[in-house]
Amino acid sequence: MGADSYIQSLLVSNALRRSTLREMLGALRLPKGSRGLDLGCGAGLQCLLAAEQIGPSGHVTGLDISEQMLEYGRKMVEKAGLAERINFQQGDVARLPFSDDTFDWVYSIDCVGYAPWEPLPLLREMMRAVKPGGIVAIAAWSSEQLLPGYPRLEARLRATTAGIAPFEQGRDPSLHFLRALGWFRELGLRGSEARTFAGSAHAPLSDELRSGLAALFEMRWPEVESELSADDLEQFRRLCLPDSSELILELPDYFASFTYALFWGEVPD
């Protein structure tokens, strides 16, 4: 998927995730008027939610490796009238272009903790950039139930290479994202906490939610054809492809749910 297509998928699927991500960021209790960093910010959609949390006197910096993503983010915040409260910078999450103790908080959603990167060096960089007592948080998509009535097919899809992302088959179990409390403990973060946040959608679906779910299918299970049996592939194409006459999103009793996992702690003095 090219950068333009991926940005479009993020925008469309954001309708599905927005309220869940807003609740998740709210749980961090980011201080009003604080300065923070969104690592791997992509198109900057979560930066808008963080700016809501910290109010007009706060400031959010979004960092991403993709200049194309950041350019979209700049146009978005300019259009929203938030250019003075949100800025974007290109950079590598492994080598942050910021001095020590620059921010009051830093978070990363669907980035730090994902394979193939080793999590501890990235978390150390996050801690370095945050003031003592500041918040370090990472979050990631952790589960979904998108095909009601077809648990076998969904289990097979979750077992594909794409389906087990952001992990990799054969990787050390201690490096799985849901083991992040161990990472935080090893690095000495104080008061570490973990929490799950759930989102859902049900029929009748609005056009916005229907488009968001269709984009999610494409993002969650790309190029799975070679890893499915002939029967599973036929069923996948029938239920999940947007041009199918039997698309599962058309069910009058359709229901879907998903979760994000959030881990956070404080930088020691």
Helix content: 25-40%
What would CATH call the class? Alpha Beta
Q: What is the CATH topology descriptor?
A: Rossmann fold
Tell me the series of helices and strands, N- to C-terminal.
Answer: HEHEHEEHEHHEHHE
Whole-number mean pLDDT: 95
Classification by helices and strands: alpha/beta
DSSP strand count: 7
Q: Describe the global form.
A: globular
The overall number of domains is 1
Determine the strand fraction and express it as a percent band. Answer: 15-25%
Task: Sketch the major β-sheet.
Answer: 7 strands, mixed
Rg over CA atoms: 19 Å
> Which segments are poorly predicted (pLDDT under 50) over 5 or more consecutive residues?
none
CATH architecture: 3-Layer(aba) Sandwich
Q: What's the name of the CATH homologous superfamily?
A: Vaccinia Virus protein VP39
CA-CA gap between termini: 43 Å
Strand order of the largest sheet: 3-2-1-4-5-7-6
The count of helical stretches stands at 8
Characterize the structure shown.
This protein is of the alpha/beta class and 269 residues long. The protein has a single domain, classed as 3-Layer(aba) Sandwich (Rossmann fold), CATH 3.40.50. It contains eight helices and seven strands, in the order αβαβαββαβααβααβ. The chain has helices at 3-27, 45-54, 67-79, 119-129, 151-158, 180-187, 207-220, 230-240, and strands spanning 35-39, 59-64, 86-90, 103-109, 130-145, 190-202, 255-266. The chain has a seven-stranded mixed sheet, with helices on both faces. Strand 2 (59-64), helix 3 and strand 3 (86-90) form a beta-alpha-beta unit. Helix 1 (3-27) packs parallel to helix 2. It is globular and about 55 Å long. The termini are far apart.
